[in-house]
């Protein structure tokens, strides 16, 4: 079994590393080729083009930024679907994109003879490294079963949610809660501070209370240091809340959160962790 991995960003590198660790033969491609070095020093082989990757590999994984990136990789002039070698193979897209785009790519892939799963993840860089991601899969049951042993090396659970688009729909829903929660924590801390309660004290109270979560405990050190290296980049949260809005469902809290992330992005905080909205709200 030869696996092709496309997209070596913050998430792609640790995830692809876990497939290597699990003993799979791994070929990698990234738009910026230098980023393949870290994996190629560790037994992965670099493909010079998507065409070469498709010809060599049985299963293709994509983990890239957004709808535009996924479209370019699958349906661009030199994209995956341009190669006749895709016939009979399986593609697993783990990027967070709109359910509509997942369904469209799945249909185009089908016409080219490529089977396609949307399989985005909940969890940031830490869970990616520890292979404890939560994976939500949309597509045919048999394709899901074929991918499952590989997905099990990337996450603690890989659930089949339904047909194509169901994985990305579930992902938008869970990230809606994430976006709202981080805004809620930020407002709570700023509210408490205005009433004379220090952030460290308040974080302790939250952690010990019923609303304390691993998410909030995990962000505490970052909040106290006002230092936000990206575990999950604020720009990606902004994108996910925009995609959620495009679903056309009334979500007043998420609407408010979407505006906050958008303003923080405009302020130049996009490459920091999503928790950096606290810095934006505090300014
Ligand atoms: P990053 O760290 O921003 O990495 C994004 C990756 O996507 C990186 O490999 C990029 O290549 C690649 N990319 C972006 N645009 C393109 C295009 N147009 N063509 C090819 N490749 C592209 O994101 P994360 O790893 O944190 O997140 C990945 C997904 O998981 C995202 O959907 C999140 O919302 C969740 P580059 O290195 O810049 O050349």
From TrEMBL:
Gene Ontology molecular-function annotations: NAD binding; NADP binding; oxidoreductase activity
**Which Gene3D superfamilies has this protein been placed in?**
N-(1-d-carboxylethyl)-l-norvaline Dehydrogenase, domain 2 (1.10.1040.10), NAD(P)-binding Rossmann-like Domain (3.40.50.720)
Question: Which segments constitute the 6-phosphogluconate dehydrogenase NADP-binding domain?
Answer: 2-162
| Residue ranges constituting the 3-hydroxyisobutyrate dehydrogenase-like NAD-binding domain according to the UniProt record | 165-281
For the keyword Transferase, the answer is: no
The organism's superkingdom is given as: Bacteria
**Keywords on this record?**
NAD, Oxidoreductase
Q: Where are the transmembrane segments?
A: none
- In this protein, the active site sits at 171
rRNA processing as UniProt keyword: no
Question: Which SUPFAM superfamilies does the UniProt record give?
Answer: 6-phosphogluconate dehydrogenase C-terminal domain-like (SSF48179), NAD(P)-binding Rossmann-fold domains (SSF51735)
Q: Which family does it belong to?
A: Belongs to the HIBADH-related family.
This one is known as 6-phosphogluconate dehydrogenase
The organism named in the record is Brevibacillus panacihumi W25
């Amino acid at each position: 079994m030869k696996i092709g991995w496309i997209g070596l960003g913050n998430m792609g590198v640790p995830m692809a590393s876990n497939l290597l660790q699990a003993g799979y033969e791994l070929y990698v491609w990234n738009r910026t080729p230098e980023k393949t070095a870290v994996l190629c020093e560790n037994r992965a082989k670099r493909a010079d083009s998507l065409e070469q990757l498709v010809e060599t590999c049985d299963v293709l994984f994509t983990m890239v930024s957004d709808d535009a990136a996924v479209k370019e990789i699958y349906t661009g002039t030199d994209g995956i679907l341009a190669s006749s070698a895709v016939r009979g193979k399986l593609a697993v897209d783990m990027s967070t994109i709109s359910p509509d785009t997942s369904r469209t790519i799945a249909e185009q892939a089908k016409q080219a003879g490529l089977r396609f799963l949307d399989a985005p993840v909940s969890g940031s860089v830490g869970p990616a490294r520890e292979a404890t991601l939560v994976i939500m899969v949309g597509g045919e049951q048999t394709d899901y079963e074929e991918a499952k042993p590989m997905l099990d090396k990337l996450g603690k659970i890989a659930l089949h949610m339904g047909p194509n688009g169901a994985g990305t729909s579930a992902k938008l829903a869970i990230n809606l809660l994430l976006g709202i929660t981080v805004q809620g924590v930020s407002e709570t801390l700023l509210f408490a501070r205005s009433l004379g309660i220090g952030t460290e004290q308040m974080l302790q109270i939250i952690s010990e209370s019923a609303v304390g979560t691993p998410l909030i405990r995990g962000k505490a050190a970052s909040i106290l240091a006002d230092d936000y290296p990206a575990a999950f980049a604020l720009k990606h949260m902004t994108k996910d809340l925009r995609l959620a809005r495009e679903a056309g469902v009334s979500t007043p809290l998420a609407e408010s959160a979407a505006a906050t992330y958008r303003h923080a992005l405009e302020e130049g905080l996009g490459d920091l962790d999503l928790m950096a909205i606290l810095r934006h709200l505090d300014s």
